[in-house]
């Protein structure tokens, strides 16, 4: 029969609380990621408590908390939840930072891009809107998934490849100043968020 000492019980309790908090963070990130509509305003500011939670997880790992993991199942659950947070939580966080930077007032299109005006085909024709940077949320998910996967595999150089591929794919759409600003801010926030979410796992190896 396995004997549980007080330290073991404390470790199980702490890790159970951590897993529950991370699971709650994933649920909150999913709610924050819902696209705003005319009837339903955006809820991206709900990601702020999740940022605090990730910061706590980093501090917990930095002070050696991962050494107290009571079992492999707890470690795997924590890594999976951190990965989910890193993938899902980046999109609402980008929106929050864009608003703080004053770039959140750009009109959005129906496919997740931004609307920019361009001159009509003939002189004096009414300007028409064109949607650029489409599919940003989906690209962000894939970008952060690739970064987190590369970090877990120890292939940190792959981050440069991910950024280069994204930059090349968007190059033709970056002639607009609003597009450039959103692209730079969004990419940097996405990279930092993915790094922050995978940091506890990397520190705890």
TrEMBL record:
Taxonomic lineage: Bacteria, Bacillati, Actinomycetota, Actinomycetes, Micrococcales
Organism in which the protein naturally occurs: Leifsonella bigeumensis
Keywords of the record: Membrane, Transmembrane, Transmembrane helix
Transmembrane segments: 12-33, 45-67, 73-98, 145-163, 183-203
Protein name: Uncharacterized protein
């Amino acid at each position: 029969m396995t004997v549980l000492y007080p330290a073991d019980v404390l470790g199980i309790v702490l890790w159970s609380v951590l897993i529950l908090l991370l699971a709650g963070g994933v649920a909150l990130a999913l709610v924050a990621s819902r696209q705003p509509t005319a009837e339903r305003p955006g809820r991206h500011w709900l990601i702020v408590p999740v940022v605090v939670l990730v910061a706590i997880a980093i501090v917990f790992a930095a002070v050696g908390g991962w050494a107290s993991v009571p079992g492999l199942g707890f470690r795997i659950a924590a890594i999976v939840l951190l990965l989910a947070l890193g993938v899902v939580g980046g999109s609402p966080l980008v929106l929050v930072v864009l608003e703080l930077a004053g770039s959140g007032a750009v009109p959005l299109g129906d496919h997740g891009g931004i609307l920019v005006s361009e001159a009509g085909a003939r002189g004096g024709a009414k300007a028409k809107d064109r949607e650029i940077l489409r599919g940003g949320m989906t690209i962000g998910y894939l970008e952060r998934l690739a970064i987190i996967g590369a970090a877990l595999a120890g292939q940190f150089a792959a981050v440069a490849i991910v950024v280069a591929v994204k930059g090349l794919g968007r190059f033709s759409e970056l002639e607009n100043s609003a597009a450039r600003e959103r692209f730079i801010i969004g990419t940097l926030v996405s990279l930092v968020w993915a790094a922050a979410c995978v940091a506890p796992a990397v520190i705890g190896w």
